[in-house]
Write a structure and sequence with these properties.
Layout: H1 4-10, H2 12-19, H3 23-30, H4 39-53, H5 58-70, H6 72-77, H7 88-133, H8 135-138, H9 141-176, E1 180-183, E2 187-193, E3 199-204, E4 208-209, E5 216-220, E6 223-229, E7 232-238, E8 242-247, E9 250-254, H10 256-262
Antiparallel strand pairs: 1-4, 1-6, 2-3, 2-5, 5-8, 6-7, 8-9
Helix pairs in contact: 2-3, 7-9
């Protein structure tokens, strides 16, 4: 078997038995129904066919790209819920702007806090000098009064800071003690509970913290991810869709065929 025509001669039923790709999707690929397939879907199916049958289908990839260029409106109307990775440069600019604004707010709060405390300290020093001059008659009462006024301000600032540090520590500990998958850019995620068959999906840049109490299948629209475990971090840079199984506390990357088998023959 050497060409795409050989695959067409085999037919969707025979190919399904070996690849576990849904027959309806195979019919679209074999009939070159480009308008009904997103780039992620089409390129993913072609990659599986190349791997399973050991043939080069770069010509079909090129046909798809040419079709997209000639019919952009048709492809957009048929766009899947799986989102392509957005421009990395745009994401960096947005992230940089958010960080800069956050830093300005923090610095402004710190300066305001110091300015609110500094005058009180000055009052204490001036009062102390007055007490030394009239020590015999007045004593140290003015200093004690000013110190009493200052203490609640300092205590309130330290209490707020301590509360923020405690919250941050808890958030970090929650992720570090388990396994999480963090997208480096926005990605569509499909989640399937193997016990109940319940499905959910979302588009996010937030890390996904895996639940040890559940056996779950995960599908990501692309593989630009960071896998964070207690043993370290693994970085993936796959432009195509990727699949994972999380069973009995063990995370394993699988291919689409294995995902389909565990999902009763359905790709999603």
């Amino acid at each position: 078997m050497k060409t795409f025509e050989d695959l067409q001669n085999l037919g969707a039923n025979v190919i399904h038995e070996q690849t576990h790709i849904a027959r309806s999707k195979l019919e679209l690929v074999l009939n070159k129904s480009f308008a009904d397939l997103t780039r992620v879907q089409f390129m993913g199916f072609i990659s599986i066919l190349e791997r399973e049958y050991g043939i080069d289908l770069s010509g079909i990839r090129q046909e798809y790209d040419e079709f997209v260029q000639l019919h952009p409106d048709v492809v957009i109307q048929k766009e899947s819920v799986i989102l392509q990775a957005q421009s990395r440069s745009r994401q960096k600019w947005i992230l940089g702007a958010i960080v800069a604004i956050t830093l300005l707010i923090v610095i402004g709060s710190m300066i305001q806090g110091w300015l609110s405390i500094a005058p009180s300290e000055e009052v204490i020093q001036l009062s102390s000098g007055n007490v030394e001059v009239a020590d015999e008659n007045v004593g140290t009462a003015p200093v004690e009064i000013n110190a009493t006024v200052l203490s609640p301000i300092v205590e309130a600032n330290f209490t707020a800071l301590k509360r923020e540090l405690n919250i941050s520590t808890k958030s970090v500990t929650t992720i570090e003690n388990g396994i999480s998958i963090k997208p480096t850019v926005k990605v569509w995620i499909g989640i399937l509970d193997l016990a109940t068959g319940a499905k959910s999906q979302k588009t996010t840049t937030d890390p996904i913290v895996l639940d040890k109490s559940k056996n779950t299948l995960y599908m990501f629209g692309h593989g630009r991810l960071e896998i964070v475990t207690p043993d370290g971090t693994k970085i993936l840079k796959d432009r195509n869709a990727v699949w994972f199984t999380y069973e009995n506390g063990q995370l394993k990357q699988i291919n689409e065929a294995e995902f389909s088998v565990k999902n009763n023959g359905v790709t999603w």
